[in-house]
What we know:
The complex is a heterodimer of chains A (285) and B (467). By secondary structure, chain A is α/β, with parallel strands linked by helices. Chain A contains 9 helices and 16 strands. Chain A has 2 domains: 2-89, Beta Barrel (Elongation Factor Tu (Ef-tu), domain 3), CATH 2.40.30; 101-213, Rossmann fold, CATH 3.40.50. Helices cover 32% and strands 32% of the residues of chain A. Chain B has 467 residues and is an alpha/beta fold. In chain B, helix 15 links the parallel strand 8 (309-313) and strand 9. In chain B, 55% of the residues are buried. Classes of the chains: A alpha/beta (285), B alpha/beta (467). Chain A binds chain B through residues 23-24, 27, 37, 41-44, 68-69, 83-89, 219-220, 222-227, 229-231, 236, 238, 241, 255, 258-259, 261-263, 266-267, 269-270, 273, and chain B through 173-175, 183, 211-214, 217-219, 238-242, 244, 250-251, 253-254, 256-257, 259-260, 263-264, 268-269, 273-279, 281, 352-353, 397, 400-402.
Amino acid sequence: MFTIVEKQTLAPTVYRMVVRAPEIARKHRAGNFVILRIHEKGERIPLTVADKDPEAGTITLVFQAVGKTTSELSTLNAGDALLDLAGPLGKPTHIERFDGATVCVGGGIGVAPVHPIACALKEAGNRVIAIIGARTKELLIMEEEMRRASHELLVATDDGSYGHHGFVTDVLREVIEREGRENVALAVAIGPVPMMRACCKVTGPYGVHTVVSLNPIMVDATGMCGACRVTVGGETKFACVDGPEFDGHQVDFDELAKRLRAYVEDERRAMQIWSEQRAGHRCHG
Amino acid sequence: MAKTQRPPRTPMPEQDPKARARNFDEVPLGYTPEMAQREASRCLKCKKPACRKGCPVEVFIPDFIAEIEAGNFQRAVDILKRKNSLPAVCGRVCPQENQCEAYCIVGKKGEPVAIGRLERFAADWERAQGAVKIPEIPPKTGKRVAVVGSGPAGLTVAGDLVLKGHDVTVFEALHKPGGVLVYGIPEFRLPKAIVQAEVDYLTKLGVKVVTNFVVGKMRTVEELIQEDGFDAVFVGAGAGLPKFMGISGENLNGVYSANEYLTRSNLMKAYRFPEYDTPIVRAKRVAILGGGNVAMDAARTALRLGAERSIIVYRRGRDEMPARVEEIHHAEEEGVEFQLLTNPVRVIGDDNGWVRALECIRMELGEPDESGRRRPVPVEGSEFELDVDAVVVAIGNAPNPLIPSTTPAIQTSRWGTIQADETTGATTMPGVYAGGDVVTGAATVILAMGAGRKAADAIHDYLTKGG
Lengths: 285, 467
């Protein structure tokens, strides 16, 4: 069992959980992810790790309650425990001292996995420009953490309630124009599929190498089942062992978006049954 | 005087095919004590038993059968367990017709003694008594062994070495121990409660089982030895990345690897969605690509998940199918269809990215290839479409990449399998042994157990005599 030591609501439906997992905290690197199961009948879901504290033996998970499992996870509190937690999985981010600025773009919940990458890039001596965005100000997460993890932080909200009025892609374009294409060594873009695809469309013409972190459906997440296959550069790759990070300019985002919707009806049904059961429990005190 | 006619092989009662094709309960129901004793009486108790030669773990076959015949069921189990720590599993999933039973002298003139069924009977009898006997464990040697993977190879190594006094810890990446026995082989062929009982038996012997522990990620093999103080390591990490056909449309929704399809159903209990949270596509018409045991498991699972048609698509003929005769027979009885001499060409999708059909081409058998089997060649212009809404690709796996990729001292073959000595399982890294699918590529439970047995002997020698 993996005890939750801290829980916090970051934004409506977005939660931060600090979980005791000393073995994972010790080995976790930027770019890795974990897989968890809440209870005996639960499914295995992959989550990105927003932070780690090897001394305290904890990792920090940030997630959005969208389906049944994440909603159920959001009802757990400090003192509760996760039944299963395994990691660190996937390949860590390639970190080096790059010849030029690095731009880290996080959209919505994607800010969480960008955070450890920005930290690692900064620690390796890179100049880190961070761009974070959300639909609206109250959904923006980890602003302070990202400010500390970067040399310059830029913010965008779709509705203009905070920072630039518009998408992170607008800001990304401005940054590349401002810095000059040859002075930008790397872009990292993590967030919803349309956001990652749009970021790659921006960086493509400039020829800026762009790393994305993919979040396909997974089951075992250790290189056995093949659920997480994605097409990269015309080849099938397994995100759990070959990724989750790939060259964004090579990724077939259309296929990924379709595959992510494979169980949308089942998910809706599970969510509905669970909500009804919860409502029933509440009525009976 | 005419020779005494041996009585025919005692049939095993089974669930009715129509009923069982819609439930996940076990298909063969097992012998009653009377049936077992009757079947045991068919054994000639050969002085030089040929059957033992066919057993990768060399069970004392005539001895345990003699005890069954005499009604000494506990003694039969004790004899079995001297050589086989997983008799309830092996009695169910071993391909006995190619192993022990293939060598049975009774089988020369008629049907061989049903050794597998008797093995299963004895193991089930003991479990039904409630109290599984724990053998005496020798004094502790103080040596510590790490076993990577809790499938048949790993469990065999763990069982053998704990009985020799070593301290054994099994590391399992998934949340449940058993490896392929829990994620791969369906409930109707191997009830998960039986696997759990076999694992519980090992923990009673003193084996420590750690789940959610991904060796290669959480710890490398080197760290297990240098930091955690293990004296030897056995790698039985099993099958890895599923193979696909390499045809277009394989990433459409509704296309599964057999590993994923079976893992969702078996390990995650998706057949009980939404009571369990993991979903699985409930297709009406399912094509299964491949002709092995895993393909049969997937085809039979598809029926149980509600498919109206479950169709095996295999490029060679029936005689070339690698699946066990019994599995093919069971599948056929339940209504699985066989499109033989048929090769998939591409998977056709609809606008939303879902499988709509499978385009196939007819094959005919040509000259024998290097495997001795006649090579199938496509019949030009014979393409046709099979209307399906799910496709399960069951054509095998590449070995698990996690250990080789994080353990440079272990040499691998060009197929990515770990190189291990055939008689000892020794790898190129001192103190590290390997066996099962991670060495051989996809094979059978009993071969993995046989490899585990050999490696356990070699590890014991290494720990006590220094290699």
